[in-house]
Amino acid sequence: MSFRQASVLPGFGLTFGFTTFFLSTIVLLPLAALVLAAGSMHWSDFWHVVTSPRALGSYRLSFGASLLAASINLVFGFIIAWTLTRYEFPGRKLIDALIDMPFALPTAVSGIALTTVFASNGWIGRYLEPLGVHVAYTWLGVTLALTLISMPFTVRAVQPALLEVQRDLEDAAETLGAARPYVFRRIILPTVLPALLTGFTLSFARAVGEYGSVIFIAGNLPMKTEITPLLIVIHLEEFDYRGAAALGVVMLTLSFAVLLTINLLQGWGRRRHVRAAH
Amino acid sequence: MAASIPHGALSDDEARPGQHTWMHAIVRWLCITVSLTFLAAVLLAPLATVFAMAFAHGIAAYLRALIDPDTVAAVRLTLITALVVVPINTVFGLAAAWAIGKFEFRGKSMLITLIDLPLAISPVISGMVFVLLFGLHGWFGVWLQEHEFSIVFALPGIMLATMFVTFPYVARELIPLMEQLGNDEEEAAITLGAGGWITFFRVTLPKVRWGLVYGMVLCNARAMGEFGAVSVVSGHIRGLTNTMPLQIEILYNEYSFVGAFAVASLLTLLAAVTLVVKTLVERTGYRRR
Predict the structure, then answer these.
(1) What is the rounded distance in angstroms from the CA atom of residue B26 to the CA atom of residue B234?
(2) When comparing pLDDT for A18 and A1, which is higher?
(3) How far apart are CA A227 and CA A224, in angstroms?
(4) Average pLDDT of chain B?
(5) Nearest Cα to A240, choosing from A30, A33, A39, A49?
(6) Which residue in A8, A78, A109, A148 has the most chain B C-beta atoms within 10 A of its own C-beta, making it the best mutation to test that interface?
(7) Looking at chain A, which residue has its C-alpha nearest residue B88?
């Protein structure tokens, strides 16, 4: 068995060589530098940096707020995807196109705009303030920013799955007397579950690493409203490259774990899909 | 990411059972209200705020903010960066899609995962890796200083960081597209005596043009808007290494809100244009997989 199967098309050597070369120089080599920088630390130093109270506080906020944001998107993302695929209403196409806005909008813009809206004198913040709800400069603000920037991931993951729900099955169940909640639980939910979980994981992954939109709305107080990416930047600004690299490796490990989860979930979804088709 | 609702999918809904009950009407109303309220609070209000704040002191103040020399320099730097980064990543995307989409080889899925890697990495880490390599205390820091060439806190660093974060955009559009379209037409062209380049430009490129446009537009949007990675490598030198998103941060932190939101309004317009192009491309029948 050879490395590549025979083909009459030319250019494999050129394009494959260029791809791997470019990938290695731009992505893999720099990432290796990160791992090596952290690896050159003594184990106890590494452990000291990544388990310092300030680092632990930042994980708690970054991971906690990201989980919360992904969960909020699980609920609202599903409702939005459902509304866009099942109901016709004025402006549906426009809303559908706007869903991708957080992808296209630079994070710095989302950051300053959200902060302004939810500050104590902002359009929405001024109504929340009397209720004792402080969004800007608290963990709530962090969660809000993460919810906004990761929202499209859930909606766009669930939408195609919702379109694939076999409407005939729903009709058949209803004609046979099944109540709507029962149809939802037994027919719709099982079909979209893998997509929903993929969307959740993608949202979470994006939220954990997010920096631009969060630093404006978070108060950036150590232990309280300081996210892990910000702590990395602070280490870099103090020229503590190794400390920054150590925290970077912790986050990188998590990213890999998430990528692996996504691959497994998508494989699961495909298998279910294939089984359903037979 | 596709707006993937086929035409006519909703039209035969009225004929379905259970569409005219009270329950259905209430659920429908509830879903639409919840969706629109959520989007209005989280998405539309911030978008409107950008323009409300930018024009808070009138059009004259807005225009004055935009012709500020540091802001103009930031716009120029952002444009130059995108002009360099997008074409390079486009060439890479085409090469990667040709190798992966047209040939079978071992380790293919591994290669695809590695290409997607930058999407899963925090922007801060994407910038940091270049500081570790080329920063003053980095691996090549001393060597670079001896040769009086700076990468970090200078244009090359900004370009490298931007290239890193936008690396997968064109490739991940084109790879599934080329895989799906198959090799039949290319094989026919080659068999009939066309050269490799002719085949690529006359057969393949026209087939994948909408996917290419789609990927380039997304790549460009991210390249112009990237904040975290560029922030780490840029050093925030006014008028020299400040891109538009970084200029927003500086102006905002100085309470120069009209200035900050004026620059933000330009980037918001860019995002809107990106979405329009994306929607138009999808109208041609191009669908993301």
Answers:
(1) 53
(2) A18
(3) 9
(4) 89
(5) A49
(6) A109
(7) A22
What residues contact residue B132 under an 8 Å CB cut-off, 6+ apart? A30, A33, A34, A37, A241, A245, B138, B139
Question: For chain B, what percent of residues have pLDDT higher than 70?
Answer: 92
Query: If you count residue pairs, one on A and one on B, with CB atoms under 8 Å apart, how many are there?
Result: 310
**Could you tell me the pTM of the whole model?**
0.90
Query: Poorest-confidence range of A204-213, A265-274, B249-258?
Result: A265-274
What average pLDDT does chain A have?
90
In tens, the pLDDT along A119-177 reads 999 999 999 999 999 999 999 999 999 999 999 999 999 999 998 888 888 888 888 88
pLDDT tens digits for B59-74? 999 999 999 999 999 9
A44-48 mean pLDDT: 92
Q: Which of A26, A33, A239 has its CB closest to that of B137?
A: A239
Contact B95 A107 (CB under 8 A): no
Given CATH 3.40.50.1240, say whether it is the number of domain B57-283: no
Nearest residue of B to residue A124, measured between CA atoms: B41
A23-27, A58-62, B36-40, B136-140: lowest mean pLDDT where? B136-140
Locate the chain A residue with the closest alpha carbon to B245: A108
A75 in reach of chain B (CB within 8 A): no
**Yes or no, beta carbons of A109 and B13 under 8 Å apart:** no
Q: What pLDDT score does A255 carry?
A: 76
pLDDT confidence band for B3 (50 / 70 / 90): very low
- A126 and chain B: CB distance < 8 Å anywhere? no
Distance CA B107, CA B37 (A): 47
By the 10 Å C-beta count (0-12 exposed, 13-18 middle, 19+ buried), A8 is classed as exposed
Q: Which of B13, B14, B121 to mutate to test the interface with A (most CBs of A within 10 A)?
A: B121
Cβ contact, residue pair A76, B23, below 8 Å? no
CB atoms A104 and B274 under 8 Å: yes
Domain borders along chain B are 17-54, 57-283
Domain chopping of chain A, boundaries: 1-40, 42-277
Is the CB of A240 inside 8 Å of chain B's CB atoms?
Answer: no
Determine whether the interchain pair B164/A26 forms a contact, defined as Cβ–Cβ distance below 8 Å: yes
Q: Do B275 and A101 touch (CB under 8 A)?
A: yes
CATH number of A42-277: 1.10.3720.10
A257 touches chain B (CB under 8 A): no
Where is mean pLDDT largest: A270-274, B84-88, B180-184?
A: B84-88
Asked if B245 and A107 come within 8 Å (Cβ–Cβ), the reply is yes
* Whether the Cβ atoms of residue B254 and residue B238 lie closer than 8 Å to each other: no
Between the CA of residue B174 and those of A14, B92, B209, B287, what are the distances in Å?
17, 11, 9, 12
CA B159 to chain CA centroid, Å, is 15
What's the pLDDT score for residue A119? 93
Query: Above 0.95 for ipTM, yes or no?
Result: no
Residue A1 near residue B99, CB atoms below 8 Å: no
| Chain B interface includes A83 (CB < 8 A) | yes
